[in-house]
Amino acid sequence: MEFLAAGLAMGLGAIGPGIGLGIAVSKAMEALGRNPEASGAIFVPYILGIALAEAIGIYALVVSLLLIFVAPGAA
Amino acid sequence: MPEEEGESLIHVAIKAEELFQLGPLHVTNSMVGALLASVVLLAGAWWFARRNQLVPTRVQSLLELPIELMAGIISASTSRWRSYAALILGFFLIILVANWIGLLPGVGTIGIAHVDETGHEAVIPLVRPASADLNFTLGLAIVSFVMFVFWGIRANGAGGYLKELLGQPLYMAPLMFPINLISEFSRLISLSMRLFGNVFAGEVLLATMIALVPILVPAAFLGLELIFGFVQALVFALLAMTYISTAIAEHHSAGHDSDHDTDHGAAHAAGADHPPAAEAASA
Questions:
Q1: Own/partner pairs for A33-37, CB < 8 Å, 24+ apart?
Q2: CB of A48 less than 8 A from some CB of B
Q3: With an 8 Å Cβ cutoff, are A61 and B201 in contact?
Q4: For tag attachment on chain A, is the N or C end more exposed, with fewer CB atoms within 10 Å?
């Protein structure tokens, strides 16, 4: 049961960050395509945005790891 | 070697395993990894101090590359970048080295054979990448948390910092204060969890891939982990830098306005500083 929960937590939790990262990267690429000289200015906010979006996925990972390794019924 | 275990090919431990005990200190394999990273950095610093030249040799310019990249980013952040540049650079370098040490052959495979209480035979790896241990990442996050609270208090005074926590219309303070307090502490958790989650997930991914397809395929994932190790080090350093630079930012009237201002200034400075940064990134 814990494994099922862990799998669901990770799988469902990855949907949001996946969409978010896709939007962020597509917009960054778009901006880069329009104005290649701006790569230096785009880079830092881009990395920060990616990291913040990815954090949500990491939360899901942490929850599923807790379910697998730390939950009361886990092995 | 974990492959000879038989029943389970994948060796994954969420906790750093204890190697031996030194008095009251339980020496774990991630501590060995952290020490190894420190030794590598110290050796690099020593090498640099001994034989740096104005016209860099090939090795020297290679070692200067990440520092140059970070220096370009840090110096473009705020006007007071000198006060926190060393901390941010230190975060970046220690995490980068700690992450990449985990990818060296032998790390995670060479270890001490060990039979646990249930009669299970396992190998305790001698070295574990330090950032795959929550203690290490939480330690770094606590350092950055203390530093950005400290700098915030020094820049705006204790009253100014408290006012920041209370929020703008004072009658909303009972609602805003807990939210702001939680958001301050969630930075601590998200900083440490992000790094730990990424590196640990990378370790699990590599172990799984090696167990599934032992030949050729793990190499591709090793390359991926090389990039992830760099990106995560960069992300941690950049987030710590952003937290600190928003903490020390001069507040004009409203919090949002000043945030916008610093962002704009950073973007401008990065644009002006573009050639060296791009050079470092593309070289």
A1: A37/B274
A2: yes
A3: yes
A4: C
